[in-house]
Write a structure and sequence with these properties.
The chain is 70% helix and 3% strand. It is mainly alpha-helical. The chain has a two-stranded antiparallel sheet. α3 packs across α5 and α4 packs across α5. The longest helix is centred in the last third of the chain and has 26 residues.
């Protein structure tokens, strides 16, 4: 048979044991907070190091061609242009709407003007895609049988 706790209980739980566990968790939280405060890294140190390395490269006349970055920008532009053509074909894309979304994205910290087209396209496509996924989950996969 189980021995009843020797100390006071609250809803069948030994109060002293519960307090000891909570004190242990609090102590661990304090130790973690101290560790986090002591090991703070300078977020700009890596950036400053990269800038100094780039400055040294430029001084010595070494110029790296960033073809990979340029290629990804071209690919992104082509994708955005396809989205823009689809939206214009459906007569959905309005310049005033694009300007409003560009302004909101700029306020959020996204300066890329092409993202406005992506947002409008997502507003058109995502409800259909998510609705279809919901129908599939409910009826075909029988996730909720009743």
């Amino acid at each position: 048979m189980i021995n009843p706790p020797a100390g006071p209980t609250l809803l069948g739980v030994d109060v002293i044991l519960a307090a000891s566990v909570l004190a242990g968790i609090a102590a661990m939280a304090v130790l973690y907070a101290i560790y986090a405060a002591v090991t703070v890294r300078d977020p700009m140190a890596k950036r400053v190091k990269a800038l100094n390395a780039r400055r040294d490269e430029l001084k010595s006349g070494i110029v790296n061609a960033s073809g990979r970055k340029r290629q990804s920008l071209v690919r992104k532009t082509e994708t955005t242009e396809k989205m823009k053509e689809r939206l214009e074909g459906m007569k959905v894309l309005q310049e005033s709407q694009v300007k409003i979304i560009q302004q909101k994205l700029a306020q959020a910290g996204y300066r890329n003007k092409e993202l406005a087209v992506v947002v409008i396209f997502a507003r058109m496509v995502l409800p259909v895609v998510l609705g279809f996924a919901g129908v599939v989950a409910l009826y075909w996969l029988e996730m909720f049988p009743e």
